[in-house]
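Re: the multi-chain job from yesterday

Posting the exact lines I submitted so nobody has to dig through the queue logs.
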Amino acid sequence: MPPAPAVDRALLQRLAELARLHVPAERQGEVLRSMQRVVAAFDALRELHDLPLDAAAPTAGVPLRPDTAEPPLPLDEVLANARQTAAGMFVVPRVVDA
Amino acid sequence: MTDLHQLSATALARLVRSGEVRARDVVRSFLDRIDRLDPDYHAFLDHRGGRALADADAVDTARARGADLGPLAGVPIAWKDNLVLRGEVTSAGSRMLDGFRSPYTATCLQRLTAAGAILLGRTNMDEFGMGSSTENSAYGPTRNPWRPDCVPGGSSGGSAAAVAAALCPLALGSDTGGSVRQPAALCGVVGLKPSYGRVSRFGLIAYASSLDCVGALARSVEDLALWLRVAAGVDDADPTSVAAPLPGLEPDHRDDLRGVRIGVPWELNGPGLEDEVAASTQAAIDALRGLGAEIVECSLPRVAYAVPTYYLIAMAEAASNLARYDGVRYGARSSGARRCEEMTTVSRSRGFGVETQLRILLGTFGLSIGYQQEYYGKATRVRELLRADFRQVFGQCDLLLSPTSPVAAFPLGSRVDDPLAMYLCDALTVPASLAGLPALSQPCGFTTDGRPIGLQWMAPPLREDLLLQVAHVFERQTDHHQRRALS
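And the result, structure tokens for all chains:
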């Protein structure tokens, strides 16, 4: 069994980047303490052996309906919840540098 | 006539359908009551006011025309703030969705209105369903009508409090790991989580997709049977909805439980229970034995792993589902960012509350390279073992019984700083969620200081009929459900 992971600031920083979250420095200690307690509870599963090799996918056995085009939602209603739109499209800040 | 707010959904529908009462008068009485009482409890985020009255007028007009009214004609129903209604605000208890107006309607709400129900208003909830006390709502907590210094449970705490305070006869909730059953128990009402797939989730804002179910809360078992008849059924818009026929849910007027085998798994009926919860459950078991049921002591050997298994799966799915809140298409968006990725990060960090961010981080942990196999992967395999345990035990008995919650309603603020203590509130409800089983909570007693205690029933997949029949007999032979939080 691999060693239990170190739930430290480096791991928190990596997870926050993956999750697109910013945890301010003044909150990191509190978040880390909560994470350490919960991960310690998760570790109860690490003592289990002889588990089934595979788990059924949550969608196993779900029947697929015919792939038929249905009328789409009205474009103006879909765009109405966006903070910024133009010419029927969502507008976002720059994605790549010119 | 009894005050309208004291009547069940079944009774109100009967009166409206027969013309003895106008739907407008029913809706007016509940709106007045919400305006008068809800400032003390904050069960509702808002109500539809004049639009609900207009819908009621349409029911009254249809009746005057001689039209055949639906089975829920004129019954005002509240719904949890994570079910979308076209053109109206839905926030899932989050600042992230502040002001969001859906371009479509949830199937479960469509089916209610098609049956004549009147959509009354949105109820408060823990943000995205993540909580067991409704204290994680961005719009402030809900208070328990039995004890305003205590929580109503969660995450459907607004719906439970609304029913307990008789602000509506029936309310929709959602149940991922106990979010209908646990607040039902803490608020002294009946709550049903149907089998996974029994009720369409189209229009339910996703939290953990392999676990999420739409459920309902009411003050009687009969009302939940009425709701399920309307709500159940396959839906093309939800590929996980099942086409299985719904067994007969007509009220069963038998007075005994002879021939019914009720399993009592020791793991869910002893360790960690408050004394008064254990005593009320034991009294219920004695009463059931007195009604002729066979009580079968049994075991779910792997159920001790249910809480970490549930939270690993739920948090991983939440991290994935909540990735959609990127500040682009809907929801909160922070201004001033120069790059798109920065905009997304700042928007999410400001829009999500503390508990939601914690669960996203932990879910990301369970899914990330190096940890996925040991955590999320292992949890999905342990879920298979739990399902096998249930299959085995249902060979010995017809239903299972336990308390719904190990504790009665606790004081506001007493657990918010300890996530693990809050997660353990779900210890008795997550097993049925992981196995996709139908489960129901009903009142079975009170603590000496007047807080309700709930009894949980679990049945094999798609056997809601068994749950409702047995719970109905228990209800008819006891008086716990007749006590009211407010007159």
